[in-house]
Structures are given as C-alpha cells and as structure tokens.
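Request from the bench team (R.T.):
"We need a structural guess for the complex before ordering more 2-acetamido-2-deoxy-beta-D-glucopyranose. Sequence and SMILES attached. Just send the tokens back."

Command: build protein-2-acetamido-2-deoxy-beta-D-glucopyranose structure.
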Amino acid sequence: MESKENSISTKIVFLWGLLLFQLQALQLTSTSVALPGCLEQCGDVEIPYPFGIGRNCSMKGFTLNCTFSNGTYKPFLNNIEFLNISLSLGRARVTNTVSTQCYNATNGNVTYDNWHKNLTASPYRFSSTLNKFTTIGCMTLAYLTVSDMVNSYLSGCVSMCRSMENLSNGSCTGIGCCQTAIPQGIEYSRVHFDKNFNSSTTYNFSRCSYAAVVEEHAFKFNTSYITTGKLYRSKLPMVVDWAVRNKNCSEARQDMISYACVSDHSTCVDSANGPGYLCNCSEGFQGNPYLPHGCQDIDECANKDRSPCSGDCHNTQGGYRCSCPRGTHGDPYKGTCYSKLPPAAKLVIGICISLLIILIIMLCIHIILERRKLIKVKEENFQQHGGWLLLEEIRNRQGLAFKMFTEKELEQATNKFHKNNIIGHGSYGTVYKGILKDNHVVAIKRAKIINERQKKEFGKEMLILSQVNHRNIVKLLGCCLEVEVPMLVYEYISNGNLFQLIHGNGRRIYKSLETRLKIALESAEALAYLHSSASPPIIHGDVKSANILLDDHLMAKVSDFGASMLAPRDETQFVTLVQGTCGYLDPEYLQTCLLIDKSDVYSFGVVLLELLTGKKALRFEGTEREMSLSSSFLSAMKEGRFSELLDDQIKYDEDVERINEIAVLAKACLNVKGEDRPSMKEVAEELDRLKKMKQHTWEQHNHAEIESLLDNLSSYREEENTGFYSLEKKAMLSIEPGR
Ligand SMILES: *[C@@H]1O[C@H](CO)[C@@H](O)[C@H](O)[C@H]1NC(C)=O
Ligand SMILES: *[C@@H]1O[C@H](CO)[C@@H](O)[C@H](O)[C@H]1NC(C)=O
Ligand SMILES: *[C@@H]1O[C@H](CO)[C@@H](O)[C@H](O)[C@H]1NC(C)=O
Ligand SMILES: *[C@@H]1O[C@H](CO)[C@@H](O)[C@H](O)[C@H]1NC(C)=O
Ligand SMILES: *[C@@H]1O[C@H](CO)[C@@H](O)[C@H](O)[C@H]1NC(C)=O
Ligand SMILES: *[C@@H]1O[C@H](CO)[C@@H](O)[C@H](O)[C@H]1NC(C)=O
Ligand SMILES: *[C@@H]1O[C@H](CO)[C@@H](O)[C@H](O)[C@H]1NC(C)=O
Ligand SMILES: *[C@@H]1O[C@H](CO)[C@@H](O)[C@H](O)[C@H]1NC(C)=O
Ligand SMILES: *[C@@H]1O[C@H](CO)[C@@H](O)[C@H](O)[C@H]1NC(C)=O
Ligand SMILES: *[C@@H]1O[C@H](CO)[C@@H](O)[C@H](O)[C@H]1NC(C)=O
Ligand SMILES: *[C@@H]1O[C@H](CO)[C@@H](O)[C@H](O)[C@H]1NC(C)=O
Ligand SMILES: *[C@H]1O[C@@H](CO)[C@H](O)[C@@H](O)[C@@H]1NC(C)=O
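Reply to R.T.: structure attached below.
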C-alpha cells in the first residue's frame, strides 16, 4: 500500500516539473529576441539575435560591445554607436563622425579633420535610400570617395553663402548646406574637402565647413551650424543596411547548418543592398526568425487593426477565421453581417408595414368622411323636408306635442324595421309597430317615394297635420325628416279597422245599428273637422272602411289622410294627386282630377253603405252592376228594393225609419255631381240627429252589445294571428257611450 502511494506522488512531482519546464520554455521563446542567457537590451537599445553582446551571443559579424559611456550603457561596434536595430527591415541606425575643414585667420592656414568608415567584410552597407552625403559651409566643396585615393571621387556637393541673410533653418538646398544621394552598395566612405574652397573670405561669420553621410530625415539644417563650431567632431545618425552576407536565399538554403532562418514559419528574403539575405516570419507570425521557434503566431483577434473582423474572430496558426455571429450571415471580413433576414427582405417588410399603416390611416379617414357624409345627407334631407321651419314652429308654439324623431330612434323602436313589426301595407308605404324608449307604442309609417313638391312642403304639411287635434283622428306624434323619404309617427290604435269589423273575413260579428251609427257619426265628425275646422282645409282623399281605425272602446279614429291631402292651392298640384281606392272613388274626380272635399263625401257615402249592407265596396263576382256597391245600391234604391241589400243583422230591426234615413243620406252622398252632395258637416249633423232619435233605447243595450262585439272581434283577430290587437276586457266595463 505505502510503496504504491509513494510511486504516485513521485509521478505527480515529475509531471509538475515537466509542466513548469515547458511553461518556461514557452515563455522564453515567446518573448525573448536574444539567445538564451544573452542580454536582450543594452541601455535603451534592444539587441535582437543575430545581434548580440559578446561573441557567444551573436552571429558572426553581428557582435557588439555594450560600453558604459557618459552615464548610460550603449552598444558599440568599434567606435560606431548603434542607436536602433530593426530585424524585419534589415536596418540599423548608427552614428557617423562629421569631417571638418577650418580656416585659421591668424596664420592663414587651413586645417582638416577627415573621417572614414570601412564596412568591408562586415554585414553592413551604407543605405542609399535613407542617407544623403551632406556638406555644410559657406565656401565648401566636399567629395565622397570609396577609397583612400584622393581622386577616386564618387560624389561631391558644393555649398556657398555670401552672408547669413540667405540662410534658413531646415532648408538644405545649396545655400550653406548641400545634400546629394549616394549610390547603392558602398562599403567604404571617406570625406575629402577641395583645397581650393576655404573659408578665407567668410571667416568673419563662417570659419569652418563640415561634411558627412547622414540620415536625411534625422538631419535638420540649423544656421547655428554655420556660425558656431559645434559640429566639429560631432556624431550624426546614419542608416546602414545589414544582411547575412555573401549568399542569397537559394544558396543559403542549401547549407542547412549555416542557414540563418532557423525558426518555423520563417521565410528568406534576398537583401536589397548587396549580396546576402534576410529572414522574415511568415505572414501571420511575428517574432525573431533567426531563433528556433522565434516566429510566433499572431493573435489577430486581439488586435482589431490586423483583423478587420466584424463578427466572431477565431485565431488560427498563421491567420484567423472570421465568422458572422450566430443567427447572422454575410461577409464578416467586410463588416457586413446581417441578421437572418437579408436587407432586401427587411426592405420589403418595412415597405409592407408602411403600406399597411397607410392603408389603415386611409381607411380611418374614409370612415370619418363617410360618417360626415352621412350626417350631411341627414342634414340635407332634414333641410329639404323643411325640417328647420318645422323645428322653429315647434319651438315657437310651446306645448305642441309634436316631436322630431331621429332615424336611429325609429330604427331602435322597430327593431331595425323588422318584418315582424309590419302591421300594414298600403299604396303609401309600410306601417310598422314600434315601441319607443319610454315604452310608448306607436305606429310608424314609412312612405314610399314621394315627389319633389311633397318633399319641399313636407315640413310645412307636418306642421299643419301636427295641429290636427281631434279625438276621432289618429294623432300624428311626430316625424323623422333625416331620411330621404320622411317617416311619420302616429299613435298606435290597437283594435284594427272598420273594414275588419264589417267584413271580418267570412266570420259574421253582430253589430247593432246603434254601433254602426256611432262609428259613422264619429268618422263623419272627423272628416267634417278636417274639411272645415282645420286650416287650411284638409281633404282626406282616401276615405274607406280600412282607413277608419277602432280603438279599445270601438271609438272610430280616422287615419291615413295621406301626406298629400292638403287642399290643393294651385293647378299644378291637381295632376300629381293620384289617390283613393277603387270602389270609393268619386266618379267626378276621375273626370276632373280635381280632389275636393265633396270627393271625401262620396267616399264616406260608400262607407255608410258598407255599414248598412255589410257588403264590400267592390266585389269580384256577380254582374257588372253588382260589382260596385254604390251602383248596385243606387239601382236598388231606384227600384225600391233597397231593403234586400241590408245586412241581415239589421234587416229586421224595427227601426226601419232610421235605416231609411241613413240610406237617403248615403244616396245624397253618392250624388254623381259633387255640388249636389251635402257637406261633411251636414252629414255629421244628420247622423247625429239620427243617433239621438233613439238614444235611450241604445243606452240600454249598449254595454252588453259592445262586449259581445269585442269578444267576436278579438276572436276573429286571434284567428288571423296578427297578434298586435290585444284586447283588455277589463277596460270594457268602463266603456262610455259615444256622446
Ligand atoms: C564562448 O563559448 C566558448 C565555448 O562554448 C567558451 O570557451 C568561451 O569561454 C565563451 N566565451 C564567453 C565570453 O562566454
Ligand atoms: C557626454 O555628455 C556630455 C554632456 O551630456 C557631452 O558634452 C559629451 O560630448 C558626451 N560624450 C560622449 C562621448 O558622448
Ligand atoms: C569590444 O571591446 C574590447 C575591449 O575593449 C575590444 O577588444 C573588442 O574589439 C571590442 N569589440 C567590438 C566589436 O567593439
Ligand atoms: C528604434 O526605431 C523604432 C522605429 O523606427 C522606434 O520606435 C524606436 O524608438 C527606436 N529606438 C531607439 C532606441 O531609437
Ligand atoms: C591659429 O594659429 C595660431 C598660430 O599657429 C595659433 O596660435 C592659434 O591657436 C590658431 N587658431 C586656431 C583657432 O586654431
Ligand atoms: C584658400 O583659398 C584661396 C583661393 O580660394 C587660395 O588662394 C589659398 O591659397 C587658400 N589657402 C589655403 C591655406 O589653402
Ligand atoms: C577596409 O578593410 C579591409 C579589411 O577589413 C581591407 O582589406 C581594406 O583594404 C580596407 N579598405 C580601405 C580603403 O582601407
Ligand atoms: C541673398 O542675400 C542678398 C543680400 O541680402 C540678396 O540680395 C539676395 O537676393 C539673396 N539671395 C537669395 C537667393 O535669397
Ligand atoms: C535658426 O535657428 C536659430 C536658433 O533657433 C536662430 O538663432 C536663427 O536665427 C535661425 N535662423 C533663421 C534664418 O531663422
Ligand atoms: C572681417 O571683419 C573685420 C573687422 O570686424 C574687417 O576688418 C574685415 O574686413 C572683415 N573681413 C571680411 C572678409 O569680411
Ligand atoms: C539650432 O540649434 C540650436 C542649438 O543646438 C538649437 O537651440 C535650436 O533649437 C536649433 N534650431 C532649429 C531650428 O533646429
Ligand atoms: C602654418 O603656419 C606657419 C606659420 O604660422 C607654420 O610655419 C606652418 O607650419 C603652418 N602649416 C601647417 C600645415 O600647420
């Protein structure tokens, strides 16, 4: 047990040590630019391999000394100080000593301080691109030579100036300062001053001249260089190109032992200045290609400048992968990652939504406009039908029980004019039963189309009708002018009409002479009222039994004196009046088309006949003469056999005298010539007189008779199944005789 445990712990220690070692190695290769154990820096200057301090730390020819000088350590090659070393570019910035020529006015002698640089057999070359041969002075001609031979001139530069005035700082253009390019590939440089140019003429302000190869961009001409001697033996920066010399890449690769580019992911580049080559890390790697494992992968994702990746960045060996974030696609390298929807689809969706919104807005506007239009139409209708006039009149005459109904009110009252609410059809239109909000039951007459004149005068007519107030006339409660064809609202008469009472659809109901007389009288009074008391006079125009309604107490209520029954006032109105019912029509009216009050008298005469005979005004059987009740009556009267026509229920009434008088009255009413007919008022008076003749006898029978009458009538209605004409029997007990 124990030994086993021991072996495990030692293994762990070993593995841990291995890990640490590897971490260290990794650290070393990843950050170090120099060989292990060598100085990476001398003073401020980084020393990357193949450069190195000491022979064992550097490649042959790249050995530097790190010397303490003037307070800091500086790398030196002999007397050349290295200011900067660039691995990738194969360059180094070094110092160069300035050569000097001075004139001694005291003894007229000229002194020279000339310097040279021998880079032969070293990895360095003067950089022809970054350096310039520069002379400074006011009477100066200096040469750059490639050997110690005086006349091996390579290049020369002249700088002149008469005074200080023409000099300017930073400008090296021949006045006090001259710069010229140097050829490529030089290994040696020496400065020569031309003996014929000396400062003997300018020594008052410029005693010395200077010349050196300097880095163009690092050198700024300063007028103080002319006037002071501070450039004497000074050191100016110069750039040298270095390379692993004397073999180009293809040659070097063949000798793997001396091949300098030892790192993985490194490439060889031929030197641009002289024979030799440089090493570079491959694309996507950085570091020192001259060291084993010196080239390290670049984490492009850590540096946004290196990887224009707008999406998710994944670093790879020597590169990186860029992908759009989940749920998007596009070109992440160009920064065009879209969400799942391509821009075109988004555009389409956007347009669709906009269109939808526009559509909704337009719909709303349309609805609003339509509503306004409807209100306008309603107002127009109202105005056209003289609504304002009517309204004003109603306001003026307080206490007038006439109401202007809105279309909506009537719609609600009739359950939107449901067909179950229809209680009658006619030539004029349809009558609906309606229940107003206050539970008031009304009859609503919805006329068919009316003509222009009627339209215009409707309000006026309504006003007149509203003032018609007679207990035997169906009361007009109000109207609705908002609609194209105005609607009239009448009081609701519950018990059917005289036509139903008399003819009863086959069933015979007993009606005493008194009852008939009462109904006739009441109807006559109503008509007389219309003809004479109303102002202007109103002609009913369609008097018939069906238009005489009966209420719970069998009281007659004349209805349906149309919307056009006002007495015509001018000729144009005559033709337009087409009204009346066959069998009741005044024969004279048919000829003249002139509706007069006597036309109503004729029609009333027919109603009287109906009451007497129990026969319909027009029958579609028998001979031609027998078809019309009036003509068969008239001929029967002529032949003295009138009693044959009488209703069975009153045929044997002992009151023959009264019956005859009624018949005479009817005959007078049916006179062919209108003028000869009695007025409605006269008819009413006559009927009143006849009724009073036997008032007392009637009173005795009254109650019992009416009760049985109503019983019969109601049972008849139930059979007809109209449902509207309910009958309250309790009310009958309080029935009062007509007058
Ligand atoms: C350089 O290395 C050689 C052999 O490896 C050794 O003999 C010599 O002392 C070293 N020189 C220096 C300066 O370290
Ligand atoms: C040392 O520094 C002084 C002033 O900083 C300077 O005058 C002198 O030339 C420097 N010497 C060298 C060898 O650089
Ligand atoms: C470094 O300094 C030593 C002693 O000062 C000298 O012998 C040697 O040549 C120098 N080497 C270089 C490369 O400057
Ligand atoms: C060397 O040159 C590089 C780039 O030109 C610069 O960033 C660096 O500061 C220089 N170093 C010194 C010591 O001049
Ligand atoms: C010029 O020459 C004289 C005599 O030889 C000498 O004393 C003097 O120092 C020289 N001047 C300069 C600036 O070198
Ligand atoms: C200086 O130059 C003049 C001509 O420019 C010449 O005559 C003279 O000899 C020169 N002096 C010296 C010392 O070279
Ligand atoms: C430069 O130095 C090399 C050896 O390092 C020598 O052979 C050559 O002659 C020198 N050139 C001159 C001009 O002094
Ligand atoms: C140099 O200075 C003189 C004297 O001031 C002047 O006449 C001349 O125009 C100047 N030359 C240039 C090129 O500026
Ligand atoms: C150049 O600069 C120096 C020092 O800043 C100044 O004294 C001199 O007047 C300047 N020269 C010109 C021509 O501006
Ligand atoms: C130099 O200056 C002196 C006096 O300051 C003057 O006498 C002499 O002529 C000047 N020489 C030149 C060449 O300008
Ligand atoms: C010229 O040199 C002086 C002294 O070194 C310096 O103070 C001045 O700033 C320089 N002028 C320019 C324009 O470089
Ligand atoms: C120049 O000056 C004269 C006298 O002052 C000397 O005699 C010469 O030797 C001197 N020449 C040189 C080159 O310095």
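Two things stood out. The chain has a mean pLDDT of 80. Residues 167-169, 222-224 surround 2-acetamido-2-deoxy-beta-D-glucopyranose (ligand 9) (CB under 6 Å).
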